[in-house]
Amino acid sequence: MRVVEASTLVPGTILRKPIYNEHGKMIVNANIPLTEEMINGIHKLAIQFVFVHAQSSEPLMGKTIISDELRIEITKTIEDAFVKLISEDFYLRGLSLEKNSSRLKETIKSLQNELWQQKDVLSLLIDVLHYDEYLFTHSLNVAIYSLGIGTALDLSKIQLNLLGLGALLHDVGKMAIPKKILNKRGRLTEDEYAFIKQHTIAGYDLLRQVSSIHPLVADCALQHHERINGSGYPKGLIGKEIHLFSKIIGIADFFDAVTSNRVYRQAMLTHEGLTLLINESDKLYDAKLISIFSDLLTIYPTGLHVKLSDGRQGIVFSQNDAATDRPVVLIIEEKGIKLSNPYEVNLYNELKLEIIEYNQIIKKVDF
């Protein structure tokens, strides 16, 4: 299977998925050779990217067909990822959700059930994970962040499922981007960046080819890089022209991108990524949504080595959900001397103290 531009289709090409119009009517079926008339019908629908079956005689832009064994293995990986999310006793990916954690876990479970019922959606996720492991991990993280915001907004179960699907599949169009561009270490050229930006349109086109996928999910892929001041792409939408789900996913997408390690960039800490978001409030991103998101985040993750304003050093030991920027710190150094008996300081009760420096997260501390 691969993703190609519709403009490159030639008679005899075989689609992997049918093509539907805006009313859900099948226009071109899958698994039969395309004719000139069929190709013209696809062009009339303004579809720019399509799924096709790979032919061994052709150079592949994407990936080859997945074997049954590999598909089973990848499906198990996806299932395990959801099971881990649901089974965690403390919340993951830096979210602090004491009030909403049970509902969020139920939403994640509901979303997983939805995936296993919608084979086309699961198939797309399998394709994403097979194409690029980071792309899947990023999509899962964006879904968790988005569902955290959606839960705080008290969206309905149906809305949360749609938001979760939209977030999981928001970057599916990146399968149309060659890996040498997608994972380039250096700065992108103007042409390469223009090509990258096409992933929003590619994702929209690929998702609208699947009749079982709600049109709003395709809109999430199309709009997640739109910005409320009109500076985004692909359409330069402003304010209320951008769907709420796309605004949420845009925030989650940006935050996870800057706080994740990539081959070309070191990850920012939670606090740094959030600061970037806050700086763009009501310019690029909705300020209300950023405020909700910041309330959910653990600003100083557990295990972070910190220095306090009075010179003491310690490790973030636990969180205060009422004030995520005021954690409990285990003091391990005082006046330059390592302590044999560390003690806790709760910054929520010590308002004169501030964290002034922080660096690596400590995986394990022995005393």
From TrEMBL:
Gene3D superfamilies for this protein: Hypothetical protein af1432
Highest rank taxon of the organism: Bacteria
InterPro entries in the cross-refs: HD/PDEase_dom (IPR003607), HD_GYP_dom (IPR037522), HDIG_dom (IPR006675)
Pfam families assigned to the protein according to its UniProt record, in alphabetical order: HD_5
PROSITE patterns: HD_GYP
Residue ranges of every copy of the HD-GYP domain listed in the record: 113-309
Membrane-traversing stretches: none
Official protein name in the record: HD-GYP domain-containing protein
